[in-house]
Fold this protein.
Amino acid sequence: MSKNLRYAVVGAGNGGQSMAGDLVLRGFNVVGIYDPFPEAIEYVQRQGGIRMIGDLREGFAEISRVSTNVEDIVLDADIIMVVVPAYAHEFMANALAPVVKSHQIIVLNPGCIGGTMVFRSILQSRGAECPILAETNILLYATRIVGPGVVGIQDIKRWLGVAALPASDTPKVVEALKPAFSQIEPMDNVLETGLNNTNPMTHVATTILNWGRTKSEGQAANFEFSEWVTEPVKPIVKKVDHERMAVIEALGIRGITNEEFFEISYGGKKRDVVQRVGEVLPSSTIVPDRYITEDVPMGLVPIASLADALEVKTPLTKILIDFACVIKDTDYWTEGRTLDKLGLQGLDAAGIRDAVQ
């Protein structure tokens, strides 16, 4: 595999724009960016690319094809990088179903828990030419959109897990991605990638425990999430992470604690880039809504569902889910990725593992 592989980026939020800009500035072939929302790509279209700021990536990444028509972007791609919140996976799978080809590789960045299972189910039900499906355990970048068509990457993870569904395709995916992403390391299956996404442990607990501040300060909070994980919050994050690790142990797969993850991913504090531009979008300085709307239904709910099936007690995880349901007036227990939605209901630990091999 080489730099000649053609990448399409699906999703023009902070992650998608960061990935596209990063690849272009490092000399890789990005055929274009797709997003269904015109406002998401307006400035990128207008200026013909993405302005990247910060110590890690600085410069203008020229991208000639930016479209709300998915076929225009993915038709010529070898690798389709889906970089959207997990609650958009169903939409993107349905959008891609009529146009993907079996020789392509789709990578969910990240899959959260069950992302590739959702994609496979939809592609198969739509009669699509099912490509290789894979997912990372987390988004590679700590990043924000800091202005119209401007992205600031705070940090880039030094380690990134990846697995395919089925797991037998993982070596092909690693071989394809390694030239562009040297951090990529194979994981045994998509259960390992999904359950080793540590974002829900930190995001949900910290957001809920700072809910009053979130609502009262808004943009004035000058959001830097690491500063919100205060001493009183840390024990709660650690306890909910212990519950996740107990589920992983019961399932019989590899687990990485939240503390281990932060060390192997960053090794220290993430860089600050928000101050690099004079005017920043309000969305870059407030707590992202997806810290609840993504991390609860696609993170904590499947953990709790697995825990029930494996007879593991997760009281704090369930309390956080219940609290999120109240503050968002949403039944995440119903909306979330439960085992029955993932086709894993009624299976024991061995059966669940076998389903993704």
Observations:
- Confidence is low (pLDDT under 50) at residues 273-284.
- Residues 234-251 form the longest helix (18 residues).
- The domain at 6-192 is CATH 3.40.50.720 (Rossmann fold).
